[in-house]
From TrEMBL:
Pfam families: Anthrone_oxy. The chain crosses the membrane at residues 63-80, 92-110, 144-162. This is DUF1772-domain-containing protein. The keyword Oxidoreductase applies. It comes from the Eukaryota.
């Protein structure tokens, strides 16, 4: 990243790696954690499986949004910097919006499933094994879809960084 100011390098690193890390973390929950929860060979009370999921969920709901906000800040700085230099900046706004889109997706699309699983973890809805398994499978699919938002943000941010490097080195 020769020729780029340190602040640009830091902002790009925070934005792109934050988005990529968030995407990977989300995807691995769907690819590894939920199938692991559902792969028990001996009977497990559905509330116990829901409680295990709730433990994962409660950790993720703290760390995921923090990482999304860090990415948002990195991309916002890059957009501001490019706009103030008269260079294309919309790509970084797009990266920011796509990366942070996991928040409204979670609230609007995933919340009913999240709430049902949290209630199952508390024993409030007396769901059987099959119902809890179906909720976990639904959550797994929705969560995997959600993981593509920050991945797309990271790709767009990387594209913007490469273009910025070309402008800086090429004198455009």
């Amino acid at each position: 990243m020769s020729g780029l100011p340190s602040a640009t390098i830091i902002a790009a690193t925070v934005g792109i790696l934050g988005s990529a890390w968030n995407s990977g973390g989300q995807a691995m929950l769907s690819i590894l954690a939920v199938p692991g929860l559902l792969s028990t060979t001996s009977p497990v009370h559905p509330q116990s499986i829901a409680q295990q999921w709730a433990g994962i969920y409660n950790r993720g709901k703290v760390l995921g949004p923090q990482t999304a906000v860090l990415s948002l800040l990195g991309y916002t700085y890059l957009a501001y910097q490019n706009k103030s230099q008269g260079r294309p900046w919309h790509v970084f706004v797009g990266a920011a919006v796509i990366s942070i889109a996991i928040v409204p997706f979670t609230i609007v699309v995933m919340n009913p499933t999240n709430q049902a699983l949290l209630q199952a973890a508390e024993g409030a809805n007396n769901l059987g094994s099959e119902a809890v398994s179906q909720l976990l499978l639904k959550w797994k699919d929705l969560n995997l879809m959600r993981s593509f938002f920050p991945l797309a943000g990271a790709a767009l941010g990387f594209y913007g960084l490469v273009a910025k490097m070309r402008w800086t080195v090429g004198g455009l």
